[in-house]
Every structure is written in C-alpha cells, then in structure tokens.
C-alpha cells in the first residue's frame, strides 16, 4: 500500500469518527436550495481531511466541495467530499460517506470511501485491486439486464427533468429494480462490491472520483452517458458505472 493510500485512509477514518460524534447535535444551513444543506460536520470533516493530506502532500492540488480549488500545478489532484449524502446524514439514515479520490494526470488513480454508519471502508489504488475492510472485492458477473439492480440517482436533474424521467421509464421496463440512496458514494461502493449492477447519476467530480477508482479496480466500467471517458474538468458530470458486462445494454437505454 502506497503512502498516498495510507494517508487517505487515515484521513477518511478520522473524518468518519468526527461526523458520527457530531450527528446528535447538528446545526443545518441551507445553501442553494432546500435539498442542498451544510452542517458543521461537513466543515469539520473537510478540515480534518485537508489537514492530514496537506501535511504529507503540501504541493499537490486540492478540490473539495466546501473549500473549492487549490491549484499548485501538480500532476496530482485530491478530490474530496467531506460528507456525501448530507440529507441522509441529517435525517438519521445510514446512507452517507466520506469520499477521498486522487487524480493523477487528470485520471482517477486511487480512492477511499468511508461509510462510517455502516462500518465499511472501501479503497483502491491503480493496479492493486479494490477492497472492503481489507477483503478483495469484485463487481458482479450478472449478464441478464432483466435481473439487474440499477441505482438511479437524479438529484441534479434540474432543467433536464423531462429527459431524466424518460430514462427512468425506459429502465423500469428492462431491469429488476431501480433504487436510489441519495448518496453517490454508497451507490458506487455497492456497484464495486457486486451488490448492485450499475449506477446512473449526475453530480459533481468530488462525488465520483474515489468511486470511479474503486469500481475500475474491481473490474467494472465507468463512462459518461455517451459511453465516452469522463472529462474530470467538467463542473457537472453524467456518469454510468456498471459491472462492465451490462454497460452497453444500459447505454442504449440512456443515450441522449
């Protein structure tokens, strides 16, 4: 395990401990709308993560949901979501997590996802496989789309709501089940683990980088809605993550 992965795991674990401790006494602020909220736990988690990472890698770049971007002209960029699934966190649901991803030359290189309420920490590093609590994980080998569980997250549909609705209608006729967890990192972790078979989601880079690294190392596939490689410089990303086997079948249902 590289130093970068060890430090990222340390940061994710310490942040997870803090957000669990703070959960019973939250102060919630609304950001852009009622579905976009911020708590002191988000800020505390981000501070812990950045402090730990920067103490080891001060010359790397950083992109975090609350802090924004710090560009030090490095080939390495840490992409951080201090709490993904804040609405679930506030509501008392277990579907939230800490996401720490690393881009190397603008491509996902490693990722750590900590789901503290579920006692689950996932990690991966390029060429070294994906793990859950130290045990190697792989994506599902399911081939029949009719038996698939496809997580469908549509929190950021916005003006594209009609298009998103059309995708959902096409999906429900073809797949077994379309749950949503309102948390990118849970969705991506479950695809990597083989519990679910695909995830369709539109969100931000910090929601996806760690999960993309973990799914890829678990044998899965991640593209945009057109089947192309993700452009990680975009502010909003359309993402399809799958076990790879079902990828093309699902793409035909969601291509714009």
Automatic annotation (TrEMBL):
GO term, biological process aspect, one: signal transduction
GO molecular function (one): metal ion binding
Reaction catalysed by this enzyme: a myo-inositol phosphate + H2O = myo-inositol + phosphate
Keyword vocabulary terms for this entry: Hydrolase, Magnesium, Metal-binding
Record-linked InterPro entries: IMPase (IPR033942), Inositol_monophosphatase-like (IPR000760)
EC class name: hydrolase
Entry's family note: Belongs to the inositol monophosphatase superfamily.
The name this protein goes by in its record: Inositol-1-monophosphatase
UniProt source species: Candidatus Woesebacteria bacterium GW2011_GWA1_37_7
Lineage summary: Bacteria, Candidatus Woeseibacteriota
């Amino acid at each position: 395990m590289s130093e970068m992965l060890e430090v990222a795991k340390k940061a994710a674990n310490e942040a997870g401990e803090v957000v669990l401790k703070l959960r019973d006494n939250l102060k919630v602020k609304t950001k852009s709308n009622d579905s976009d909220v911020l708590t002191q736990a988000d800020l505390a988690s981000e501070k812990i993560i950045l402090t730990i990472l920067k103490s080891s890698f001060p010359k790397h770049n950083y992109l975090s949901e609350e802090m924004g971007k710090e560009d030090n002209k490095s080939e390495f960029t840490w992409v951080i979501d201090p709490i993904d699934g804040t609405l679930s966190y506030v509501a008392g649901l277990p579907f939230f997590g800490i996401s720490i991803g690393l881009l190397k030359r603008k491509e996902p290189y490693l990722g750590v996802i900590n789901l503290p309420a579920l006692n689950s920490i996932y990690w991966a590093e390029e060429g070294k496989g994906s793990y859950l609590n130290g045990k190697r994980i792989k994506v599902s080998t399911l081939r029949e789309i009719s038996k698939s569980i496809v997580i469908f997250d549509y929190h950021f549909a916005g003006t594209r709501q009609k298009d998103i609705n059309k995708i959902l209608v096409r999906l429900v006729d073809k797949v077994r089940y379309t749950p949503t967890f309102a948390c990118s990192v849970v969705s991506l972790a479950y695809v990597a683990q083989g519990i679910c078979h695909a995830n369709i989601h539109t969100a931000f880079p910090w929601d996806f980088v760690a999960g993309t690294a973990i799914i890829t190392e678990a044998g899965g596939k991640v593209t945009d809605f057109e089947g192309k490689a993700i452009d990680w410089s975009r502010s909003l990303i359309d993402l399809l993550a799958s076990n790879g086997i079902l990828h093309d079948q699902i793409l035909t249902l969601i291509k714009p």
